[in-house]
Automatic annotation (TrEMBL):
A Pfam entry, by short name: GFO_IDH_MocA_C3
GO molecular function: nucleotide binding
InterPro entries: Gfo/Idh/MocA-like_OxRdtase_N, Gfo/Idh/MocA_Oxidoreductases, GFO_IDH_MocA-like_dom, NAD(P)-bd_dom_sf
Protein name: Gfo/Idh/MocA family oxidoreductase
Domain GFO/IDH/MocA-like oxidoreductase: 129-246
High-level lineage: Bacteria, Bacillati, Bacillota, Clostridia, Lachnospirales
Signal peptide: none
Residue intervals of the Gfo/Idh/MocA-like oxidoreductase N-terminal domain: 2-119
Species: Lachnoanaerobaculum umeaense
Amino acid sequence: MLRVLIIGAGFMGQTHASIYNSMDEVELVSIVDKDKEKGEKFAKEYNCLYSEDLLDNFNSETIDFVDICLPTFLHEEYIIKASEHVRYIICEKPITLSINSLENIFQVLEKNNTKLYLGQVLRFWEEYVNAKNIYETGRLGKLRYIEADRLSEPPSWSSWYKKASKSGGGLFDLHLHDIDFLVYLFGKPVTVYANGIKDENDAWNFVNTSMTFNGNVIASIHGIISMSENYPFTMKLCMVGDDASYEYEMKAGKNLENRESAVRRASVYSKNGIEEIVTYGVDAYKSELKHFVECINENRDSEIVSLKSIKNTMQVMEAIKESLEMGRIVTLGAGI
Ligand SMILES: NC(=O)c1ccc[n+]([C@@H]2O[C@H](COP(=O)([O-])OP(=O)(O)OC[C@H]3O[C@@H](n4cnc5c(N)ncnc54)[C@H](O)[C@@H]3O)[C@@H](O)[C@H]2O)c1
């Protein structure tokens, strides 16, 4: 039985807690949150201990792994603190907001011999996993064009999301998902160009990114975290090849609420007609945590979310940010 401590009793802390409580091989032992009322309520709901300070836990409890569900700007500080005490850390995305901060995290992980698993959930999302398989088996033929969209109302449950210095704005909080998935699939692009709209909190909340990958594959990625009220949370992936195209679209409730009952459709279009791709409604957050728990049990790194691939994504995010700020194409270099 693996014993987990969650830091952060908010939206994602609760999502992770209810998954752990459904897993036979994990026991949720403790929640840490600076908000006493929230932490105590969480502890009661999930039947675990509560403490305000992370360090209170390590003397009295056996903790096998820590799961960080804190606001993004605190990830670096808490990964470093936790790595002094445990061998395994799961952390929500984005890992952090700059390459310098990422490099600092990686150095500490290495020094303390700690393994990190990052919750890049699209890599576990059924229809994105299917897209990867369909592409890799060659069914699309020569790939030409990709469109990836993510459109959401602003997160309504916590005010820290509004500040770019804390959340990275829509660029890091939302757009990152699609950038990460494409970089995971194809490696780093050769060039990046992005334009967007920045708000008064320095947050890029409307972003259009164009990327060219090796082999002359082009991608158009749209990330908007300031959709008007009542616009359903929408995600779309369209991959167009010479032989066939794959398209997935999902429309859920506000801020991805009701994702179990969302409209999800995935199809392959080819000369043979239209094939609906059957999915099983598996919850991606559950698949992700199940995979990380397996890795911990086997004391291994994740091959799905490797540290190398996390670094690749962060380098591309920095290039997009540079392009947004400078208004020009950024070249990452072919074949990296
Ligand atoms: N993978 C996904 O699809 C997804 C979805 C939403 C959020 N996220 C990410 O998950 C992370 C958490 O987001 P959230 O929506 O759960 O945030 P949230 O605001 O709902 O919860 C954060 C919690 O951390 C607590 N907290 C803040 N500072 C603290 C400190 N110093 N010590 C202890 N506790 C502290 C707050 O009291 C709050 O309970 C963010 O990085 C976010 O980007 C990922």
